[in-house]
Amino acid sequence: MSAVASDATPLNFYRPDYFVKTPTMRSPDYVQLSTAAAITLGLIPGVMHRTSCTHCLNLLMTYPEGCRANCTYCGLARHREESRDYADRNFIRVDWPTVRVDEMLERIAANGDKGQFERMCISMITHPDSDHDTQVVLKRWMEAAPHIPVSILSNPTTMEKQDLIDLKNLGADIFTVALDAVTPAIFERTRGKTVQSPHSWDKYWQAIEWAAEIYGPEKFGAHLICGMGETEQEILEVCQRIKDMGGHNHMFAFFP
C-alpha cells in the first residue's frame, strides 16, 4: 500500500517499485544512479558477473514530473506516464534507484566505492530545471570529490552555448551529446515533432560543434544507437564526421 504524499518521509534511497509516493525526490537534492553504481556504493546488495565492477558513477537528474521529451525508444519517455510513476521506470533496460545527493557524497568521501570509480557522469533530462540543477550537482561534486573527473551527458534542447562554458568552468572536463539517431529522418521519426517531442537534429549538431570549440579534441563526443533503421554507411559517416571534428563516439545496440 502506497503512502500518501502528505505522509511521505524524505528518503535517503529509493528502489523502483517501492510504491511509495515521493514528492520531495527531485534534483538537485536527489539523483538517480545506475544499478551497477548502487551496488558499488553498497546501497543495494549484489555482485557483478565474474567479480567485475563499474568504473563510472552514472547519475541521472530526476523530477517527479519526469522527462518532458517523448523519444519513442526511451524508458523515460513522456508517453509512458500512464503505465508507471517516473521513479519506477527503467532507463536503458535496468532500474535506476534514487539517492539523496548528501548520502551519495558521504559514501564517496568514506571510500564507499573502494576506489573503483574513475569518473562520474551526470546525465541531463528534458526538464525546465535540469540545466540549473546539473550545475548545482556538479559544483557539489567538485567540492566533495575533485579527484574524480566529471563528464556531462547533455540535453541540447534546453541549452545555450554559455551553459557549456559554465559547466566547463565548474569542473566538467568531457561533454557528450546523446545524438542517438544518425540521420535527420530517423531523428525526426523517433525524437522530433513527429512524435510530439521537442528535440531537433540541427540543435543537437549545434551543441556538438559548441562542445568541439569549448572542450577541445578528445574532450567531447556523441552517443549513437545502431539498429534504428540506418545503414552501416550512414552510421559510419556520422562516426567519421565526429572523429574529424576531434571527438569520440559511443556506440550502443538498439534493444526494443
Give a written overview of the molecule:
The chain has 256 residues and is of the alpha/beta class. The protein has a domain at 5-148. It contains seven helices and eleven strands. A nine-stranded mixed sheet has the order 1-6-2-3-7-8-9-10-11. A two-stranded antiparallel ribbon has the order 4-5. Strand 10, helix 7 and strand 11 (248-253) form a beta-alpha-beta unit. The protein is globular. Mean pLDDT is 88; it is low at 1-10. InterPro entries: Aldolase_TIM, Elp3/MiaA/NifB-like_rSAM, rSAM, rSAM_sf. It comes from Acidithiobacillus caldus. GO terms for molecular function: catalytic activity; iron-sulfur cluster binding; metal ion binding.
Topology:
Elements: E1 13-14, E2 30-33, H1 35-40, E3 56-61, E4 90-91, E5 94-95, E6 98-100, H2 101-109, E7 119-123, H3 130-144, E8 150-154, H4 161-170, E9 174-180, H5 184-191, H6 201-215, E10 220-226, H7 232-245, E11 248-253
Helix pairs in contact: 3-4, 4-6
Pfam families: Radical_SAM
Protein name: Radical SAM protein
Domain Radical SAM core: 51-256
The topology string of helices and strands comes to EEHEEEEHEHEHEHHEHE
* Uncertain segments: 1-10
Strand content: 15-25%
Percent helix: 25-40%
Distance between the termini: 31 Å
Strand order of the largest sheet: 1-6-2-3-7-8-9-10-11
Put simply, the count of helices is: 7
Radius of gyration: 18 Å
Major sheet description: 9 strands, mixed
> What would you call the shape?
globular
- Structural class call reads alpha/beta
How confident is the prediction overall: mean pLDDT? 88
Number of DSSP-assigned strands: 11
